[in-house]
């Protein structure tokens, strides 16, 4: 079996390559290539800016009758991204750049123009020196004089900087270190002062609260308890014991006051009718002063029952019997 991937092909002995028909293509044939914009440009039709690096599907062709040192020059056709107007530019192998041809304007580039101006001046000078030896001597003298002036100016600037702007890096670092230490020390002192002030304020507040609590809850001085007199029981007079009846033991004393008797308000006696009529009342006869109880006998209780009156009578009999 033959190989699947053939590297060598068979040529018969009577093979003549001149008999192979050649494909005839036009010299100005165009190819479709993918490229990026080589520089910033602006469309002349709509004013759209096309920046460097934007990708296009361009048509490429070889420029006829234009060759630089045997290198062909190519032309590219692209379309504006906004109005689809055709823009053309071609290669410039002499300056290793591209040249705008039609449909757009290349944005201003100061660096490129400066380089072109320098090249033009240098070329003119070389042309002058080529046929005029005196011009060569003059140019060399001017260059040496200009170089000496530049060196003198540079030396003056160095001396001026050394006199006026002498920089001691060690001193700068030392000053920075000292200022940093001073700043830290000041911060530490401020912190200590604030801490001491807070502690003093809290201590004063605590003392004030303690004094207020002592004033509010002052202890009452203890008084010595009175010592009982051992012979005081002998000086007391014995109280007469009342005879307690059997029926009183069961139902209680009739003459005792009920516990709710204080809640009853006794109405006061009306004023003397003689005084109300406007007649003067006779003055009481002079005599020995009477006690308050005898002068003002207690008015009878309006709600007293017969049982209470009987109990009071029995109490009076017991007291008389004991006497």
From TrEMBL:
Primary localization: nucleus
Basic and acidic residues bias (residue ranges): 200-209, 236-246
GO terms, biological process: generation of catalytic spliceosome for first transesterification step
Molecular function per GO: metal ion binding
Region (Disordered): 179-323
Compartments where located: Nucleus
GO CC, alphabetical: U2-type catalytic step 1 spliceosome
Binding site for Zn(2+): 43, 46, 80, 83
Signal sequence segment: none
Keywords per UniProt: Metal-binding, mRNA processing, mRNA splicing, Nucleus, Spliceosome, Zinc
Function: Part of the spliceosome which catalyzes two sequential transesterification reactions, first the excision of the non-coding intron from pre-mRNA and then the ligation of the coding exons to form the mature mRNA. Plays a role in stabilizing the structure of the spliceosome catalytic core and docking of the branch helix into the active site, producing 5'-exon and lariat intron-3'-intermediates. May protect cells from TP53-dependent apoptosis upon dsDNA break damage through association with PRP19-CD5L complex.
PANTHER family assigned: SPLICING FACTOR YJU2 (PTHR12111)
Family statement: Belongs to the CWC16 family. YJU2 subfamily.
Subunit structure: Component of the spliceosome. Present in the activated B complex, the catalytically activated B* complex which catalyzes the branching, the catalytic step 1 C complex catalyzing the exon ligation, and the postcatalytic P complex containing the ligated exons (mRNA) and the excised lariat intron.
Protein name: Splicing factor YJU2
Species the sequence originates in: Callithrix jacchus (White-tufted-ear marmoset)
Gene name, Swiss-Prot/TrEMBL: CCDC94
